[in-house]
Amino acid sequence: MLDKEGIAKRIAKEVKNNTYVNLGIGIPTLVANYLHEGINVCFQSENGLLGVGHFPKEYAVDPDMINAGKQTITALPGASSFDSAMSFGMIHSKKIDLTILGAMEVSENGDIANWKIPGKMVKGMGGAMDLVASAKHIIVAMQHVNKAGESKLLAKCDLPLTGKNCVKRIVTELAVIDIAPEGGFVLIERAPGVSIEQIKNATAGKLLIHGDIPEMAL
Amino acid sequence: MKRGNFDIDFIHQIISMIYKLVTDAAAAVADITDGSTLMLGGFGLCGIPENCIQAILEKGTTNLTCISNNAGVDDFGIGLLLQQKRVKKMISSYVGENEEFERQLLSGELEVELIPQGTLAFRCMAAGYGMPAIYTPAGVGTEVATGKESRIFDGKEYLLETAFNADFAIVKAWKGDTDGNLIFKSTARNFNPLMAMAGKITIAEVEELVEPGILDPDQIHTPGIYVHRIFEGKNYEKRIEKRTTSK
Fold this sequence. Notes:
The complex is a heterodimer. By secondary structure, chain A is an alpha/beta fold.
């Protein structure tokens, strides 16, 4: 079973050379720490920066330079800043190669819910509805089950949707799973030490298992 | 619109055509009336018009509709207006980090329209470009699409989203000149230049105000034609929501 860092490490293997990538808040942000040697990536932050760098040293903190999670950041050499329309313009015109974001629920046809629990929690969708509507490739980073122990991989989402038919791949503490074009969760890899039974038990939606399922190499 | 013997629309015209400089935030927001619709620039607490928010708070204006990506935090930014229940309706994309906001929302005291961040930007942009509406794929198949017209282009569905109509746009820039030209800094730019173009009356507060001719025309983000009132702000706190550093 993987911890959060492990999930980020596994997703880092999905990031291809010379691509523009948008990272969501939480586990996705950690992916930047595990990029492989020689992988050249430009991170976009949808509040208006391409070329997001490391967190600043204490002396270099600039309140005017933050990421979409409102953390203070730095800009790398070659970075550019822009307004919010241009930022979402580059998202909707499909210039962003990969979006990695968290989710509360994913359904077996690739629907995602991550912005609202009616009557309990309303934080808003931020840029997530834009990102999932237009990204070329979407990977969800999340825990397989919620705090109550219920599966987050469902036949159909119960929570209000963020987007429909958009998720391509899910990486959890238990497995790497793809969404089949005709629907269903296709098991691709198991996390180290995790059995197929464990993954089956934690997946409420239809789990498709074709042949031998390899263990993740991290 | 009449107030005493003055025709306010005429005054607006004079201010915008002849002289944009106002003395301070209080003067800039003096004619914002109860029930107005305001656009407020900023992302989180980054690039928010601190001086004007404080002046509106002190002036006592209430029943406001605020279009802003976020709602501040409990004791800063738009959160200050929310705490005193001056806001009737918020139109935002993300409102976490504000307990009082969440309380008013869940109790039904505050009307809230949550919309995708790109849609918020494009609806500002549409207003600034004189376009009545735009199409976007954000929100298709979700509750955001409820009651909206949609259309298929090249096999993909898009929602029709209309331009915002705001009485005042209130923005914060890094530098500006007395002709209203604005330059923003880093990610404090965000919604500010879009909203500056979109307000019927646009108020700009800047950290540094200079005479015309000092700013390089090639570096201007917002041409002065969009800005009706400008002043140099004071005592910027520039509060950081999530100070994150590396060793």
